[in-house]
Every structure is written in C-alpha cells, then in structure tokens.
UniProtKB/TrEMBL annotation:
Pfam families: Hydrolase (PF00702). Keywords: Hydrolase. It comes from the Bacteria. Gene3D superfamilies: HAD superfamily/HAD-like, Putative phosphatase, domain 2. GO terms for molecular function: hydrolase activity. PANTHER family: HAD FAMILY HYDROLASE, HYDROLASE, HALOACID DELAHOGENASE-RELATED. This is Putative hydrolase of the HAD superfamily. The keyword Electron transport does not apply. CDD domains: HAD-like.
Amino acid sequence: MSISVLGLDADDTLWHNETFYQSTRQRFNELLADFVDTKRLEEEIEATERRNLGLYGYGAKGFTLSMMETAIQVSEGKVSSQALGEILAIGRELMNHPVEPLPGVHEALEALSAEYRLVLITKGDLFHQESKLAASGLGSFFSGVEIVSEKKADTYTRIFSRHGAGPEHAAMAGNSIRSDVLPALEAGSYAALIPFHLVWAHEDAPLPTDHPRFAELPSLAELPRWLAGVAKNGAR
C-alpha cells in the first residue's frame, strides 16, 4: 500500500504544549486555594472544560474562560476581581508561551518531507495555532495546514482526499489516541502514536494494539522507517 500523504499533529507532537497548561493549572489552583482543595478544583475545571468544548472549542482562550467560570462557581461568587484579573493574566501568558520544537523534530520533518506530502492537522483556535506554527520555524515543511474544530473519521477522509488519493493512502501521527489515532484508523488510514509524557485526560483512550494499521513509536524520528515498512509490506 503506497502512502503519499502524512498528517501530523502539532501540540505535543511537534512542540511543547501540555507543559504550559500544567503550570497554568498549578497557578490556578494556588489562586483558588482559599475556596476549594486541589483535587476538587481539578475535577471542577475538567468538567467545565468538557462542558464548554462544544461552545468555545479547544485552545487557550476557551481554557481561560473555563477557568473564570470555575473560579466563580467554586467560590460561590466570592472570588475577588483581583483574582479574576490574575486568571486573565495567566491565560494571556498561555497564549504567548514560547514555541519550542521537541528534540529531533526538525531533522525528522526534513526526512519525511523529502518522501511524503506533509499536512499539519491540529485542533484549536485558528489565530493561535497559525501563530505557533509561524513561531516554530517548521512551516516550510508542510504543503497544507488544516486547523479543525474536532478530529473525527470524516475529518480525515475529507482532508486526505483533498491533499492526496484518500485516507487509504495516508497516515496520521500524533500524541493523542482519541484524536490522532482512533478516528484516522476508522477512516481507513494508517496511524502512529508518538507518546508525550503529559496527556490531557480528554485525549486518552485504550490503545488499538491489535489493529494492523497502528503502531506506537518512541519518537517522530522512527516514522520514516515505519512508513517504509508499510510501503513494503502493507497491512499485516
């Protein structure tokens, strides 16, 4: 089976992202410590985020709004305007965090772009994701950029048909089982999980270890070898 198009996730696949969300959550916990314990606050912000995804979508802006909503809720409206201002400030910092490509990414993209048409497929706020790609210095490796509200099987079918010969001749790689692996496999593509040590609970799911088109790889640097094996042997 020949693969001509390779889709790549952005956050925590090409550059650090969840690291900054974790530090922001820690500061949020400290701001609300007088009202609620850390465990309950983390449960509340997680529930608020999930509830708001359909309204705000993914990204730092929606997360900031969810932090403010949670702060008002758990404090029963007693949170100070100063604390709300600090929440806005840490949300703004999250929007402006430095974009640091993960080790070996530049070299891997050089090798992959010589063999495949690379398409960046990421969720989140359009302006923020475009800004991060520009700041990363990796944009020249991609022939297409797709910033989507959600990653589903029909998302991959549409994107891989637009940029190539369809999902059966494409592969997707990223750090999220729920977004980068399962829907790509459902669409008929190959999919590789590139794990990152921090995972948002919303993106976790059981590994499809028995699926013939799935592989878990230790790093992006292993993708060229795996794809070459796919081209040679096809699905197991």
